[in-house]
Specification:
Length: 118
């Protein structure tokens, strides 16, 4: 089920590690820019949705492109399952959905004009 949390700002002090270079990075750096960000936590990167213009997609956890070293991201977002977290361009949370409910986030993105790349 989709849970909109647009009143909350995404935590800036969450640290993670990029798998490609094994360097610590602030999660906030993933949000910088005029784009939406979709984070999948503890989800296989192969299960990520189709790319969309104006949307950056990252998967966090042991199977993702970003490692949650020390569990900082899980703690900051109080994550209990494998959710998708949608962050607006201004850094505020737009929605959190269970992995099985990714379709709700995709439908929401359609309504705000973020459509699949062709």
């Amino acid at each position: 089920m989709i849970n909109c949390r647009s009143a909350g700002r995404s935590p800036k002090r969450s640290w993670a590690c990029r798998r490609s270079c094994w360097r610590p990075t602030r999660l906030f750096s993933l949000f910088q820019g005029p784009h939406w960000t979709l984070l999948g936590y503890d989800i296989d990167a192969n299960r990520a949705p189709v790319g969309r213009r104006g949307l950056h997609i990252h998967t966090l956890g042991a199977r993702g492109d970003i490692l949650d070293t020390g569990g900082h991201v899980q703690s900051a977002y109080a994550l209990a399952g494998p959710p998708w977290i949608l962050v607006r361009p201004d850094g505020y949370l737009a929605a959190v959905a269970d992995a099985a409910d990714l379709g709700s986030i995709e439908a929401f993105l359609d309504t705000v004009g973020i459509r699949p790349a062709r």
